[in-house]
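Run: sequence + guanosine-5'-triphosphate -> complex structure.
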Amino acid sequence: MGKAGIAVWRLSGPASGEILDRLSGGRPRPQARRATHRYLVTPEGALLDDGLVLWFPGPASATGEDMVELHLHGSLAVARALPPILSNLGARAAMPGEFTLRGFHHGKMSLLAVEGLAALLDSETEAQRRQAMRTLSGEGSAQVARWRAHLLRARAVLESAIDFPDEEDIPAQIAEEVRPALVALYGELQTALAEAKDARRLREGIEVAIIGPPNAGKSTLLNALLKEDRALVSSLPGTTRDIVSARLEIGGRVVEILDTAGIREATTDDIERAGVERSRDAAARADLVIACSPAGAPPPAIDTDAQILAVATKADEGRAASDPRLAISVHSGANWDRFLTAFTEAVLALGGGGLFAYERQRLLIGEAATAVERILAADLADPELLAEQVRAIGHTLDALTGKIGTEDILGEIFSAFCIGK
Ligand SMILES: Nc1nc2c(ncn2[C@@H]2O[C@H](COP(=O)(O)OP(=O)(O)OP(=O)(O)O)[C@@H](O)[C@H]2O)c(=O)[nH]1
Ligand SMILES: [K+]
Ligand SMILES: [Mg+2]
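>> structure
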């Protein structure tokens, strides 16, 4: 509850219209979808507030049910007075995401669009907003519909083969029509899977680890990127023990940047050794590693599949010329702009074009791809068995859009929503 100029109250369900009538003190119900001025009154007839009210008869409403919106003054007193009155009139407080859940149950949006909405509400950057809007506006569902079309083509052939089993050219027909449809589907599912990692990175943020030997200037680099003294810096090797993480925006992407303990083998200090272990884990897990050591020193050896941005630090100390890496100095500012450009390019190269940014989606697409792969690897002879397998893949894709699904998955998705959405 907070203070605002206007507060919007939303009601959904069959009693909404009647509740509005009671609050309006007998004034006629406004025209559908038309903002109308009303004085609101308590059941005892006392004046409560005045504002705009809207009447959205179902099913043409956000939830698919009758809905009412009250645009009242956003004072704490009004916000405290209204709930008991509403509950006396038969309303109760909505659960997080319950409006969206009801809209989903009434076919107003697919589960993909719901996830798009959740991503939009969470979005911090322009790129995240655009990605979320693509899913919210139905691009994900359209993609799934194209995959379903391949399956339909295959099923049409298989079903006629089942209905007319005497036809002699069934194996040829399967080879000519069913296989190509499944091959096409397989290719598109693989593409979506490959993009899903990028899409998820864009939504959740890209993990970047600064890795290098003690005293390479890693913490200094972190602080310079953040433009604040976030991590301790000192001339003592082994200053950073635990991982220091911070979020920043690079090229419109959310980046989670990790400053790590300097990696060295010969340490007798248990705490430092544990820190080094964490540095290695961070390097292995990261999407991008900024691998640094002072100019003239060997680059750090890092075990990771991540992209690596190699940087020589302390360029001002005079050994930059002999180093093939991009040599920067936070102290003198040398090559700082070039470093930022290279960093931004490396972040943007991690992609972000994909639509399916949630693990739930990736798992289902993977499941469908594996099933298609299994069919293609077997010899496609028995049309009845094939039809059954193709139908099962259709079910997996339906789970993706939420046409079929289980309540616990819905609970997980909707509990992440805020109340009132
Ligand atoms: N000359 C010079 N010194 C630098 C530069 N950047 C950092 N230093 C110095 O190098 C020393 C180590 O810097 P840190 O940022 O603590 O290095 P680190 O890699 O985080 O060190 P650990 O956490 O101990 O692994 C400090 O004395 C810094 O002032 C630079 O660009 N030029
Ligand atoms: K240090
Ligand atoms: Mg440090």
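>> summary
The chain is about 45% helix and 15% strand. The mean pLDDT is 92.
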